[in-house]
Records
---
Amino acid sequence: MCKKIVFLVGFFLMSVYQLQAQPLTESATDAKTPSANSSWFYSANMLYGALGVIVLLLAIMLFKNNNDQKKSGKLLKDLKRIREERDQLRHEIENLRNDMREINALREEDKSALALLQQELSAALLKQTAEEEVANNTVVWDKPEAPQKIQETFYSRYADLVDGFSAAELLSNEGNDTIFEITILSPNKASFKVSANLAAQKYALSNADYFLEPTCHYDTLPSGTIINESPGSLTLSGGKWEIKEQAKISFR
């Protein structure tokens, strides 16, 4: 449309130029008449008026074209925004679908766990019922008397076998001359230590090399009160409680 208007403007400008040039040519050869001048003036005014109309139309078209371009730019921006919103909505929809899948998976897991708990509860109830039936059908007999406890502590005056104690020579009662206290731990194991009886300790210190050295380990000269640091260990071999580890003692 703009090209057509420009073409028309150019055409009218050429026409005006020709009309202006024609009177000048005729005036050089012939004398002008009043009627010819009036006709030329009227034609020129018509052309200028048409030219003004065309220029006005051209301005209107340019203004309209500018508005159309602005509207087109706005429409493009709106279209771009709508596309971005559409893509965002698609992304959100996909996220919602993924969340729904996870929720459904968790729901299935919860169902499985609930079913397993129900099975365990049923099994526990059945077990409890069976135990109650067994308890109701069980005959309770009188409890036998507890056997008398076998004495586990014995005493000895000294290691009569040098590296051990004779099982037959162990005493059941403590005395002022029973230096060692022997505790039975099992049928073939026992521990021993020096008696806390001060009279027995005094008796041991009277000949420490004979009574204490084969059975006990100590780092200072034997004198004063004997302190048991850790018991020694014994193993039964035949009729002999053999010393496997010496008792550790100190003096105060």
---
Amino acid sequence: MSDNSADSAYRSFLDIFRHCFDRCCPYYSVKNNLNRTKSPWLSIGVLKSIQRKNKFFKKFKINPTPSNKNAYSWYRNVLTDIIRMAKKMYYYDIIDSNKNNSTKLWKILNDILNKKSMVHSNKLFMCEDCLSNDRFHIANNFNNYFASAAHSLANNLPSVNVNPLSFIPQNAQASFFMFSTCVEELSAIVIKMKKGKSCGFDEINCDLLKQNFHVIVTPLIHIINLSFASGIFPSELKIAKSIPLFKSGDAQTLSNYRPISILPSISKIVERIE
């Protein structure tokens, strides 16, 4: 990679990476597996027992004798106790294994309590005093609202006569120096990155970086060191994917949403370089 600009170097890297990824991992339409269980505590043995219970029930419906009823009722009650115990042990194990991870622990507790996600599938939003279902129009209005929120808050703050520069220590230097990074430093950063995190607009998540780090480490070092030397951060690494999350109130009102911004995974690597 011979680009002399951090912007052009990253653009070349991203184009090549996407081309290779799309070629090796093309998208396919996959039908949903309707037989897939939504209850992970149900083992294969329990699922077979459920099928056996259904056979008892079918036999009872065809021939509703007292013996068939008793056989079905007894098997159903025993199976219910087994399923309850399996569910209890499943949640006990995952809570115990995630007791030091507050994020996953709260997700598990919300799942147990059947709390609904704050993600709304609302398709109509109030945009410029009228309801709209046009995605492009809605996205632009969300962008304008989120972009102007900070200015609106700043305008509502009381004015003060304190110079902001007075909070900066007098011995602060006007500049700083960044040392070039290396394979060892990037490797240590990538290893510590958490798996399963959402990807930014570039669609490169942490898992993909970890799996292909040995392939992309050389161009990444070139881009990062070029950025440090030129003092220019690649523009595309500054782009955040903003997702509106519903807070409360009317789901059609833009002000009832708050944004979360997801930066590119490579941008997070650069932020951690010391």
---
Amino acid sequence: MASSSNTTTLSNSTNANQSSQISFLFSNPIKLDRSNFLIWRKQVLTSIRGNRLEDFISENQIIPEQHIIQTTVDGSVQKVDNPAYINWRAQDQILLGWLLSSVNEGILNSILNCDNSRDAWRSIEKQFRAQSEAKIMHLRYELNVLRKESMSVEEYCLKVKILADKLACAGSPMSKRDLLMQVLNGLGTGYLDLASIIIANKMSYDDAYALLLTHEA
């Protein structure tokens, strides 16, 4: 699905002599509904990482103090707005607004009371966690029962790769070694000798794939 891009820019002044310019480039993902969480999550995380905003949704995020104590020229002490907090708040609200715009109305109603992007992200993840875990279990089951049988090596490996990519999108990526072992496990008895050679020589996935294609030809 094609997506458009827009630049969100915000200016704010911390005092008469200081201002900061904040600019982010976000793609417009498909809107989150009850059926596309994994795809939505992948698109949203890509944009967040691309803008270096991962800390804003991290559980370990450190939020600056809203006010700081400042000593004036005459020696008196006063509480003033913290420029670091003002800057953090501006960035966070831009991200929060984008997250709110990326979900459908039903899900939007469940996160409207979230005051910052971390709370909104946490709420969405909580709503879909059980669904994600069930999806991962189902994908792993599909991988475990997949066999080459009458398929060509190319067709079989493509099916394995598609399932592995879906697992990665669901937050459960496979290593290249695990991917290779999954392929070998489903080849069947006709490939036992070749599989033994691949394992004994600690071949990479790409080299093993090339060898399997050559063997089939």
